[in-house]
Specification:
Radius of gyration: 18 Å
Oligomer: single chain
Number of strands: 0
Helix content: over 70%
Strand content: under 5%
Number of helices: 9
Distance between the termini: 32 Å
Structural class: mainly alpha
């Protein structure tokens, strides 16, 4: 892959990831609820999902998935319901502590982050339109696809980790009652962003 195209891909893909949406809101919500570690775990889930999305498009599965969007739509609404439940728990949490009782497993945060990302039908369609701009037909597509997938995965992890770490710095300055409201609002934002996604 040509260096100029690779650098352009980094700028373009990073810019799209940085736009606030369900992924960013979920990473922030996990950080504010359970701490920065869970926010980074969520970022790792989004990174894997980004890699999978890129592989799906590169292998042509994006064309197949575009014909069966209903599956993704069902997953999306399951995700919306879960985020609304998390928002409810945050708003009802004890003002003495912004964190709900008990801990949450890393695997749960990780898997749900993947589901939130993969259930966004626009991601596959966007990648189908975006990726051809960075591929050179005369050069080996497997190598180019591998570079793009690896780069996209790494960028996704760093962008959403940045969201999580920013949230961890911000929450320490809030009173706990206000923190609960911020956490609940973050989850509501994630649910709203996910629900607003159309086919």
């Amino acid at each position: 892959m040509e260096l100029s195209l690779w650098l352009l891909f980094i700028v373009t893909f990073s810019s799209t990831l940085a736009i606030p949406g369900p992924n960013a809101a979920y990473a922030i919500g996990q950080t504010l609820t359970y701490g920065p570690k869970q926010g980074v775990v969520a970022a790792a889930g989004f990174a894997l999902a980004s890699g999978l999305n890129l592989v799906i498009v590169m292998t042509g599965l994006g064309l197949i998935l575009s014909q069966f969007m209903n599956i993704l739509i069902y997953l999306k609404w399951i995700g919306v319901c879960y985020l609304l439940y998390m928002a409810y728990k945050a708003f009802k949490a004890d003002p003495a502590s912004p964190k709900p009782s008990g801990e949450i497993k890393n695997s749960r945060v990780f898997v749900f982050a993947i589901m939130v990302s993969l259930s966004n039908p626009k991601v596959v369609l966007f990648n189908m339109m975006l990726l051809p701009l960075f591929l050179v037909p005369e050069k080996p597509l497997f190598l180019q696809g591998s570079v793009i997938t690896l780069t996209g995965t790494i960028l996704s992890f760093f962008v959403y980790s940045a969201y999580a770490l920013f949230a961890s710095k911000f929450i320490s300055k809030l009173k706990t009652k206000t923190a609960n409201k911020v956490v609940g609002t973050a989850y509501l934002g994630a649910a709203g962003a996910l629900a607003s996604i159309q086919k």
